[in-house]
Amino acid sequence: MHGLPPRQRCGKPAYARRVPPLVSELVVEGYRSVKHSRLMLEPLGALVGEPETGKFADIFRRAAADRALAQPAISEALEAGCEAEIAGVVLLVEEPELYLGPQGQRYLYRTLRRFVEAGNQVIYSTHAPTFLNAARLDEVVFVERLESTDTRVARAAPLTAEKDFRVLSEFDAERSELLLARAALLVEGLTEKLAFPFVFAALGFDADREGITIVECGGKANIPMFARVCAAAGVPCVAVHDRDARPGRRPRLSERVNNALVREAAGAERTIVVEPDFEGLAHLPGGARKPEQAWHRFASLRAAQMPEPLRRAAQLAVELARSSAERR
To answer: Is the CATH code 2.40.50 the one for domain 162-327?
Structure first.
């Protein structure tokens, strides 16, 4: 499993005798967190080596004595390791996002990758979207502890090389939340994203409590890409998009193509089509203030007043999220 220690009754990795004390200590600590964590692994080589003496190892030893110092010290240690051209080290970090703000998390993620590119291996558990890269799904492994005391491992299918740049440009930390969701609701834009929490609330649900991420995809044309990422990561999704044609009229060719691509990627049974479009369905005037107008309008609607396609989308997302939770 690319560096994950084998399961032992005593909780001690079988190969601990061959790993230097510092690394062995981190392996055991990381292994104990498996039953509660979904692990993201970076299997970039089966390299196990003893850290060189000096600043690199000293910083980690100090950090081990004080948890509050551990995360800020990691960046310092990695910088020292890169400067000393250290290679052949396996580094295990539990929740590297702790005690770091968004800027610090992004910097640490880049520094970890630098350390790996120098010939090392990094394995970490995380619940932070910043440390999940949708363009490198082949590096992501989900490890879950089942009620039967067994462990289930799921590995995401990699995206094709030509999609890498597009995914990198579209997936920020907020959108990457879907990799940690029980289900994702994919919508075209900000207007829909602001409105749907009120739909869930009117139906008696809380999207966050259900583990549902509402993803603003930046337009209908992007929904298929997000749906494919969901499929690769094993996250069920519901896609909501405009038909973009008046009742009784056929959509333009470009819209028909986009509609078909969404249906193919998300699945017909999980695609909700809004006619003629979200603004028309919700009786919103056009203009630059659509998100604000949607927020005010939907905040005052009761369940019976919510448009039926939106109720159906929210209910389907909840069903998928709960089914996903039961399987886990």
So the answer is: no
